[in-house]
Each structure stands twice: as structure tokens, then as C-alpha cells.
């Protein structure tokens, strides 16, 4: 069984036992998180139950494994022949979770 859930403005396809990196979630390591915005639930090679826009009563439970910062991204802007150059860096705060249960 798999589910398509939404977190941090992004959609993720998850199965039980998967490790997923999401936008930063508040909580301690080992805390349980419940995602209620489940867009679809499906069986492997079977039927797919799609919500309009979410499935009522469906949820995905996960456990917070790690709070960390992602890889540094370089933002570089330049206009040729105008002597304009700007460099900026960014590191996103992320949370790694382990999917423990999918309730359809």
C-alpha cells in the first residue's frame, strides 16, 4: 500500500518503512507526526483511491528521525557588460521522517 501526501507545499509518494526528507517540522527526534492531507491511496498493481482534493479520514503516521540542514545552494545573478554580479547562498532546514502507518 502506498499514499500520496502533501507536506510543506510539496507532494510525496510514501510507503510504510520509507524515509522521507520534508520541509522542517516542529518536534523532537522520536516524536510522532500525523499528516491528514492525503491526496490518494493505492495498492501495488491494484486500484487507486483518489480524493477530491483529499481523502476524508485518511492519514499517514510518521516518526521524526533527524533534524538537519540540506546541501548549500548558490544563487548567482549577473548582467553582462554592466558590472553587476551578486552571489548569495542558502541552506534549507529539513526533517527526515520514517513512515510508520498508512490509514485509509
Rg is 18 Å
Q: Number of helix segments?
A: 0
Helix content: under 10%
Strand content: over 45%
Number of strands: 10
Based on Cα principal axes, name the global outline.
elongated
Mean pLDDT: 95
How would you classify the helix and strand content by structural class? mainly beta
The main sheet comes to: 4 strands, antiparallel
Oligomer, anyone?
Answer: single chain
Q: Segments where pLDDT lies below 50 for 5+ residues? A: none
Describe the strand arrangement of the main beta sheet, using strand numbers: 2-1-5-6
Could you say how many structural domains there are in total? 1
The first-to-last residue Cα distance is 10 Å
Compressed to H and E, one letter per element, the order equals EEEEEEEEEE
